[in-house]
């Protein structure tokens, strides 16, 4: 049937009108810092005693962003920049009140922004206010680096080759950086980049920025960058390639039925080749991801699959070209569908900018067949194009193809398990106004398969507004019954959804509360005949304190009509029948402590009714203590109690996680994560030693243990020694 909501005419018109409105000059175009070439040889030691720094133009007189955005920062900051034929240099000095202590969590790379005194650099080399790079350091020298997308999102899983050093004094701390031009991408011949600098000082609870930014936006927002003005265009990168080989050995054992573990010796690696200063080719052969952070377990009481983020380095540069298409629950491409539990033979990826306004992403991955399950060798190909329109908006195109090799040779029984191919074609428009107050999206997706039951359609649209005090969002989605995305993340189909939110903040002149106000959120699902199947309405109130602690309380009203049988405990107990209806109310509360304390905590609770007129009690705690800067300890506790009628009665289970992060230096780390999930009857341990013996080059020793508890008893463990080295030219 034709759905009347597919074209979203009201939202489409609004998006186009605001797209025209967004065509305006950059907000902070009058803020400029000039950068000059130097012939001096730099020693990156955090002292800044080179003659170049005596004459370099400073960026200072920062603006306060939090707790209030209507004044200059009280803690002075100064940033200077220079360059030569190979490196971009930065020297930043951050003055503080003598006697105020530094606040840091550890020396761990890619630290948590809100828990550290830190400095961050945001670069927009294409001056498109959409994509870029971020580099930074905390007050004890831990590094931060990531790629930027969607106007201000930072992906810290990206890792690059650069150096920095920090020096501490009683009245200031100083950071000095050298970033190779070969480690970033930029447009050839351009003399102006977007740039901004951000500082967080937890002793005064002050966040500041070189350019003025309204308090509702993060300092990473590229819409508010100033300009880095070069005396001459940055140097050509010339031949730019990196070889990143690895070698590893693994020993292990398994006592779990159906899982065999063989000791192995493995060699492989990646190649990065700069096709231009703005376009990169990545190749991987026999990749290994044994050193990647393990997923944090969660208790799942939903009816749908949970989402876990991508952490593998090969998939991360320009990842937004592939991963941001659609919505979080309507993704035509999800890279974790490739190579988890199935060996990857090789892969290639081209990504970056063809020019200032057009971006390209092209990926091809080949996996091995799995004899034990009969899974054939498969090829995954993705094409993504993104054309900038207006000042910060863009139009995107995506094509995803999954193909099974030698499919016709498979046994008939396997052909019912594995499909010959699945394809998705999508088109979307992303709105971002020049002042960052309006954002939105409109997308359409079409799936294709060998059977008509796999040829379906998905569509979504939203418009969002954010100011100092008001914020609201309206959104609509539709997914047909036959829409299939085997390489995507689409946990639910055959529905129409409307959802929205609205909130208001009061900004009192108070020495304890910086803001407070009410919020409303709601999402409402219907089947294609517009019959209501489930909804949740949430009325809340939030309070943000000047010491950066926060409290919120939410009252919710929820309704579910089951579209499939469901065990409300998700522990393999009896299921509720399809079509049964359930309605309940409850309350959710959360408090997070001030981050500058050595002991930090977040407490939350969910109390209320549950399926089948039952009752659910959920208590959560996240606890942390640091012996700064060398040791950071954390614990996560989650308890669920489900009080239900027969045949479930009372079901309760714990989720416990504890993590010890020891940073001997900012190049020598040891972290251990223990997790116990009573719901899935699983106990896991991951312990990882990392020595960064050269920039972007590491030695890892990783121990993994995963134990299934009664009634599914068994254990698998492994010990891996892995060495990588980054060769540059």
TrEMBL record:
Keywords, ordered alphabetically: Hydrolase
Residue stretches making up the DUF5916 domain: 242-339, 369-706
Source species, domain of life: Bacteria
SUPFAM superfamilies, per database record: CBD9-like
GO biological process, one term: carbohydrate catabolic process
Domain Carbohydrate-binding: 44-205
Recorded GO MF terms: carbohydrate binding; hydrolase activity, hydrolyzing O-glycosyl compounds
Entry's transmembrane regions: none
Protein name: Hydrolase
Source species of the chain: Flagellimonas sediminis
């Amino acid at each position: 049937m034709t759905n009347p909501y597919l074209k979203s005419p009201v939202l489409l018109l609004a998006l186009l009108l605001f797209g025209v409105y967004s065509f305006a000059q950059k907000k902070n175009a009058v803020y400029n810092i000039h950068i000059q070439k130097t012939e001096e040889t730099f020693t990156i030691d955090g002292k800044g005693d080179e003659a170049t720094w005596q004459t370099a133009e400073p960026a200072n007189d920062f603006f306060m962003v939090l707790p209030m955005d209507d004044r200059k920062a009280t803690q002075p900051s100064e940033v200077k920049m220079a360059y030569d034929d190979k490196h971009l240099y930065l020297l930043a000095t951050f003055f503080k009140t003598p006697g105020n202590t530094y606040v840091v969590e550890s020396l761990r790379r890619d630290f948590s922004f809100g828990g550290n005194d830190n400095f961050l650099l945001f670069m927009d080399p294409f001056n498109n206010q959409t994509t870029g790079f971020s580099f930074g350091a905390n007050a004890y020298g831990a590094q931060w680096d990531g790629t930027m997308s969607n106007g201000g999102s930072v992906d810290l899983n990206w890792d690059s080759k650069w150096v920095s050093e920090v020096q501490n004094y009683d009245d200031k701390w100083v950071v000095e950086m050298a970033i190779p031009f070969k480690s970033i991408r930029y447009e050839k011949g351009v003399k102006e980049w977007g740039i901004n600098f951000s500082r967080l000082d937890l002793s005064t609870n002050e966040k500041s920025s070189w350019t003025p930014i309204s308090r509702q936006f993060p300092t990473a927002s590229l819409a508010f960058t100033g300009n880095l003005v070069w005396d001459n265009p940055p140097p050509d990168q010339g031949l730019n390639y990196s070889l990143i080989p690895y070698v590893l050995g693994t020993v292990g054992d398994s006592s779990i039925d159906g899982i065999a573990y063989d000791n192995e010796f493995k060699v492989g690696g990646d190649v990065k080749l700069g096709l231009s200063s703005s376009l990169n080719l990545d190749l991987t052969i026999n990749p290994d991801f044994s050193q990647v952070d393990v997923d944090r377990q969660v208790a799942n009481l939903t009816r749908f699959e949970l989402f876990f983020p991508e952490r593998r380095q090969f998939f991360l540069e320009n990842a937004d070209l592939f991963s941001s298409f659609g919505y979080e629950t309507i993704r035509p491409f999800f890279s974790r569908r490739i190579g988890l539990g199935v060996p990857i033979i090789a892969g290639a990826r081209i990504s970056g900018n063809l020019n200032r306004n057009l971006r390209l992403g092209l990926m091809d991955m080949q996996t091995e067949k799995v004899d034990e399950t009969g899974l054939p060798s498969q090829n995954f190909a993705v094409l993504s194009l993104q054309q900038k329109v207006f000042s910060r908006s863009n139009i995107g195109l995506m094509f995803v193809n999954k193909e099974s090799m030698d499919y016709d040779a498979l046994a008939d029984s396997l052909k019912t398990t594995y499909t010959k191919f699945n394809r998705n074609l999508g088109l979307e428009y992303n709105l971002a106004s020049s002042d960052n107050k309006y954002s939105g999206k409109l997308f359409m997706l079409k799936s294709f398969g060998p059977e008509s039951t796999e040829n379906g359609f998905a569509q979504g649209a939203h418009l969002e507004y954010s100011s100092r005090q008001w914020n609201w969002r309206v959104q609509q989605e539709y997914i047909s019954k036959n829409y299939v995305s085997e390489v995507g993340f689409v946990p639910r189909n055959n529905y129409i959804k409307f959802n929205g939110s609205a909130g208001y903040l009061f900004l009192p002149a108070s020495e304890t509360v910086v803001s407070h106000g009410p919020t409303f959120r709601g999402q409402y699902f219907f089947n294609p005949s517009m019959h209501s199947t489930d909804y949740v309405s949430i009325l809340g109130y939030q309070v943000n304190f000047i010491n950066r602690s926060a409290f919120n309380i939410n009252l919710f009203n929820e309704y579910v009509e089951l579209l499939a049988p469901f065990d409300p405990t998700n522990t393999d107990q009896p299921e509720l029948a399809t079509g049964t209806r359930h309605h309940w109310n409850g309350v959710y509360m959360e408090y997070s402590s001030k981050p500058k304390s050595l002991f930090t905590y977040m407490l939350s609770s969910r109390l209320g009714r549950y399926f089948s007129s039952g009752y659910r009690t959920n208590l959560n705690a996240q606890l942390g203590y640091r012996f700064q800067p060398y040791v950071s300890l954390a614990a996560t506790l989650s308890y669920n109690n489900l009080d239900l009628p027969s045949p479930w009665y009372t079901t309760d289970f714990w989720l416990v996680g504890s993590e010890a992060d020891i940073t001997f230096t900012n190049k020598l780390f040891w972290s251990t994560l223990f997790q116990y999930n009573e719901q899935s009857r699983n106990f896991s341990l991951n312990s990882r030693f990392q020595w960064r013996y050269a920039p972007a080059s590491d030695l890892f020793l990783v121990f993994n243990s995963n134990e299934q508890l009664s009634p599914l008893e068994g254990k698998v463990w492994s010990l891996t020694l892995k060495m990588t080295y980054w060769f540059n030219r």
